[in-house]
Amino acid sequence: MAYQAGDTILDDEYQTFVASSSSPFGWNHIAGTGSGNQGLGQTHLVEVTPGSTAVAASQWNALMTGIINIANHTNDSITSRTAVATGDTIAIKAAVAADLATLSTSVAGGCTSATALSAGSELQSSQSSTRYNGSHIVEHSVTFASGNNLRFFFNAGGKIRVNLTRTGNGGSAKTSKDDSVDELITAMGNFDIGAQVSTRSGSGETLTTDGFANGVDDLGTSYTTIFLITQSSGTYTTMTIKGEAKVDNATYGTATVVTVKMSLTDPDSGDASFTDGNTDSVDQHANFIGQTDFATKLMLPTTAQGLGTVYTLSASAEVSNTTA
After folding, report:
1. CA 173 from chain center: how many Å?
2. Distance between CA 115 and CA 113 in Å, rounded?
3. Looking at the structure, do residues 213 and 184 belong to the same domain, yes or no?
4. Are 130 and 101 in a shared domain?
5. Is residue 23 assigned to a domain?
6. How many CA atoms lie within 13 A of 139 on its CB side?
7. 13 by DSSP, 3-state: which?
8. Domain of 15, in residue numbers
């Protein structure tokens, strides 16, 4: 039968709140192992056998505590409730199903409102081998111990973050190409890849390709272009920066490796280097870009606001680093 707030809870209703693996989802599916975009890897709550098991006060309180803990992590507003004591008649509390649905929606979106995140240490840093007037293309991979670990990390709000810096231009003064690169760096800012969406913290220039609606759950085994930014405000308006990503298996829950590809490209062919020994005191590479550096780190979910267990990578690697 359908439950109503204030009724004495039945074991089959409690079991639905805890263990339902179909919509409306139960707590164990939302916060436990789940599947796909549901699941945070938390310890499962005790289930009951519908039709034959009494619901203990401790079990009901554990469910209420679990809802509160996950809501604290997702930063969702839920119904205020008080604990029950042994011997109390456990009345169904208002809006339990609605609160579980709210948590389910937040987890399905990759906990984008979660603030219990910490920037991890730099995993990989790939500098261009020289100053250049062509392209700097880098691939970095992040590997998780299992498909579930990958899901739990991203579902909880974890992200792969990429930054670009320009580390100098040898002994010469900054060039006009450096100015264009700096504007692209500002336009990209922090490039974050999440579970369901990706973001850039920067702004400006021309967003030629907008694939920010793609997160890890959307990726396939070939590269998806998440963004292409074209320099628009400076001298070199053909210069671009591109971010792409792929996984080793297109099924979210089976994939264990995310690979990010970053490309800074200067297609202008009019700026060549001067002949060595015949520079007349002009820097030989006066029209080149200074060395650039793509760096990758993780934004890590923490236990600060409700999660009991968090997950992270098992390894990372520089797959390629090409300067042309």
Report:
1. 37
2. 6
3. yes
4. no
5. yes
6. 11
7. helix
8. 11-108
Instruction: Identify whether residues 191 and 232 lie together within a single domain.
Output: yes
Among 35, 105, 95, 46, residue whose Cα is nearest residue 70 = 105
Identify the bridge partners of residue 264 per DSSP, sorted by sequence position. 136, 241
- Verify that 142 and 259 share a domain, yes or no: yes
* Burial bucket for residue 240 (CB in 10 Å: 0-12, 13-18, 19+): buried
Q: DSSP labels for 138-156?
A: EEEEEE-SSHHHHHHHHHT
Q: Which of 86, 108, 130 is the last residue of a domain?
A: 108
Strand bridging mode 191-193 / 159-168: antiparallel
Q: How many Å apart are CA 180 and CA 236, to the nearest integer?
A: 6
For the chain, what is the domain count?
A: 2
How many whole angstroms separate alpha carbon 256 and alpha carbon 247?
7
pTM of the model: 0.91
pLDDT tens for each residue of 264-310: 999 876 666 666 655 555 566 667 888 999 999 999 999 999 999 99
β-strand pairing of 315-323 with 135-143: antiparallel
Residues 201 and 294 in one domain: yes
Provide the sign of the torsion angle of the four alpha carbons 205, 132, 193, 72, taken in this order.
Answer: negative
Residues 188 and 294 in one domain: yes
**Residue 104 shares a structural domain with residue 123:** no
Last-in-domain residue among 108, 143, 163: 108
Beta 206-210 vs 315-323: how paired, if at all?
A: unpaired
CA angle 33, 37, 41 (to 5 degrees): 25
- The 10s digit of each residue's pLDDT in 205-244 is 999 999 999 999 999 999 999 999 999 987 788 899 999 9
Say whether both 71 and 143 belong to one domain: no
